[in-house]
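[retry 2/3] LuxR family two component transcriptional regulator: previous attempt timed out, resubmitting with same input.
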Amino acid sequence: MIKVALVDDHVILRKSLSVLIGMLQDFDVMIEAGNGKELIEQLKDDHLPDIVLMDITMPVMDGVETTKWLKQNHPSIKVIALSMIKNDLIVIRMLKNGARGYILKDCEPEELREAMREVHEKGYFYNELVTPKMKGKNLEKEEPLNKVMINEGELIFLRWACTEKTYKEIADEMGVSARTVDGYRDALFQKLEVSTRVGLAIYAIRNELVTL
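[retry 2/3] LuxR family two component transcriptional regulator: success.
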């Protein structure tokens, strides 16, 4: 049985989600919390959840801070961000802090089931929201960094792409033109076989090119 914790400050949504997950085979909701602080208070070292479905915007302790805390203190717990926010920079922020997937609250129950199962069995779940070309990709056999011909400028840009700076701000930080940054981005899209900024961030995170 896969043990699940729900962290969301909207009580009705959380209770409804708990009922839904309870109807799915092989899943059991063991913790419900309204924010990260409540979750931490309920964690017991000898009875930890396998997966945490984590809202992002919450009072007291939000999803970003809580996900980072879990990564540092209980790395065996896998976090899936569950939010209404569809924004590349928010997705990247959650992934950098340890989230293994990112799904929207209005997703179909089957996608929720698939996300939880893939995160539990494979470690990650990438849907169309995260990066289209990574869906179905065999991440266990992802091409390592030293096998991909990335030049110094592209590598510097790749690290900056994992921040919350706009492409224009990245160009200013690198001391190059916006067109040059566009060139780095497009070249990396082709070399790494991704199609979004989130895809670039995932590659950098998995290859440990960025740190918290």
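[retry 2/3] LuxR family two component transcriptional regulator: Confidence is low (pLDDT under 50) at residues 133-143.
[retry 2/3] clearing retry counter.
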